[in-house]
Amino acid sequence: LQALGRDLRQVLNWALSKSESVLRAVISAIEGAGMVIADVIAWAKAAGDLALQIVGEVLMRAGHTVEYILLWVEKDGLTGIKAIVRGMLKAGAKLADLVAWTIKRGLQVIKDVASELLSLGVTLAQLIAETMLYTESGLKNLIQAFKEIGKSVKDIVEAGLIQPAVDAGRRVLAALRDLGHTAVEIMNAALDIGGSLLALAFTLILEL
């Protein structure tokens, strides 16, 4: 590519204008030649979501880690995070790795990544389970993100109570309390769920 004597952006724009498969091939060649990945990511941010998705996919398939790819995305600001996450997941990125990186960031990033993951079929319960490995502030940010993307208290309570460990449910209810929800609100949500989870919710609420 360097021998073509063209600007990298021109080559990438040309590839994008041809087809997705051509763009994948060109990005793979750039990555394989050891050229600067930051320049490719900066181009993709300007080119749009499809370009970002393909970049995420190609870099992941090339063996780079979630942490490495998102570090370069983060350097220029996190524009297009949803699209690049979509590409990485398509290429086999592990949910645990995505959560490990995301949960250490601010609320907006957590919200963007959680929204994308949920749209791709990941459940609230899965995200909560992965977040249990980290700090209480990370869990609270995740739950706040759930609320801001339209999930109800019932959705969140149920996702917490169905965790294998009772302590996980306890932590979710405590996070809801810390975010301003009353015991009555939480109980009403549990009532809507019904079944055995209602008794568990009542027991955990008494412990708060």
Summarize the structure in words.
It is a single chain. By secondary structure, the chain is mostly helical. The protein contains 14 helices and no strands. It is elongated, with a radius of gyration of 21 Å. The protein starts with 7 loop residues before the first helix and ends with a helix.
Provide a compact summary of the structure:
The protein is mostly helical and about 210 residues long. The protein contains 14 helices and no strands.
String of helices and strands = HHHHHHHHHHHHHH
Helix proportion: over 70%
The beta-strand count equals 0
Beta-strand share of residues: under 5%
What are the defining features of this structure?
mainly alpha, 14 helices, elongated, disordered N terminus
Helices and strands in order:
Elements: H1 8-18, H2 20-32, H3 37-47, H4 49-61, H5 66-75, H6 81-90, H7 95-102, H8 107-119, H9 124-131, H10 136-148, H11 153-161, H12 166-178, H13 183-193, H14 196-207
Helix pairs in contact: 1-2, 1-3, 2-4, 3-4, 4-6, 6-8, 8-10, 9-10, 9-11, 10-12, 11-12, 11-13, 12-14, 13-14
